[in-house]
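Give me C-alpha cells for this 399-residue protein.
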Amino acid sequence: MTASRRTFLGSVAAAPAAAAGRTRSPNDRIGIGLIGNGSRGRFHLGDLLKARAENIAITGVCDVHRPAREAMAERAAAAFNTAVRKTADYRELLSWKEVDAVIIASPDFTHSQILADAVRAGRDVYCEKPMATLFADAKLAYHAVRASQQVVQIGTQRRSEPGLLGAARLMQQGVLGQVTRVDMEVNFQEPRWRHATPEFREEDVDWAQFLFGRSERPFDARRIREWQLFRDYTNGLPGLWMSHFIDLVPWFTGRPYPLSAVASGGVYLWKDGRETEDTFQALLEYPGGLLVRWAMSLTNASPANRNLWYGTRGVLDCDALRITGEGSKDPRRVTADIAVERVQAESHMENFLRCVRSRKTPRADIQAGFSHAVAGIMSAEALRTGRRVTFDATRLELV
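Here you go.
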C-alpha cells in the first residue's frame, strides 16, 4: 500500500464516523454514490428508479471511463432532479458528504477493496458479487465490515427471489431430511463477453485507476472492455457465475464454508486469447456429509441446466420449485409453501435501502458474501494448482 493511499484511508475512516449506525428519519433523503457506470451500473440505475419511493437520489458517480461517467451523471441528474458529482477515483467519492451509501458495480477484482474502504469511511454498501476474487481481499473486506456499524448487502440477488425464499424456509425446516448431495449445472454457447473496443480511447480512460495496482501494463482497450477473460481481474467462472449458485448452500443448510474443493477445466473451445476457462467443474465437500457439484460450460447450448438437492426424504428441484419423493406427499401444498413468500418479497435493492434506514441486517449480509467468496476462491485455486484445497473455519485460512 502506498503512503498516499494509507493517508487517504486514515482520513476517510475518521471523517464520517459520527454518521455510522444512525437511524434515519423517513424524511431524510439517502444520497447514493454509484461506483461503476457500465452495464451493471445502468442495471442498478433502473433498480433505483423503481425504488424512488424510498426517498433516495444518486448524488455521485464514479467510473474510470469518462464517457460512461458523463452519461450516467446526466441520466441520474434527470431521473432524480438533483446535482450529481463525478469522479474517476472512488476514494474521492467516499469523501463527499452528500453520499450516504454506495453501490459497487465495478469489475470483480475491485469489489473487496472498495467495500473495505467504504465501510471504513462510514458508508453503507450494496456490493456486487463476487465479494472477492482473492482470499486475502475477502478477509480484508470481511473484517472491515465486521468492525464497522455499516449495513452491507451483497448482490447475490437470488436471496430475494420469491420462490427461493419459500424453498429456503422449507429446507431450513428439514423437508428433505438429511441432504447429502447437490448437483448444479449451467450451460450456454454465446460469446456474451465479446464487445467492440474502438470506443475505448486511451485519452478517455484513467488507466491507472482501472489497473487498481494488480499489474503494470500499457493501455489495452480489450482488457477494460472484456476484463472477464483475464486473470488479473477475475477468478473465472467460480466468481462470475458459481457465486450465485453456491450461495444457496450456506443459505439453505446453515453450513457457511466448504471443508475442501477440487476442480478441473480449461479453455476447450473459445481459443480467442482468453485466460479464463470456458469449461469448469468443481466438487466441494461441506461439513456434516454434503457433497456439492457445480459445473458450467460456455461450449454447449443445452437447456438442461439443473439445481437438484438430494435428501433422505425427497429431491428439491430449485429451478422448477418442485419437491418429489416422500417430502412431497401433497405436491400442491409444497408448491404453495415454496411460493408463499411471493407476495411479501421486496426486491434485493429495496431490501438494502430499507435496511439502511432501519439498520437491520439485509438478506445477503457480509457473512453470506464471505461464504460464497471462500467457496469460489477455493474452487478457482483448486483449478489453478491442480490440488485439493481445504479450509480451516476456525482460523479462517485456506490450507
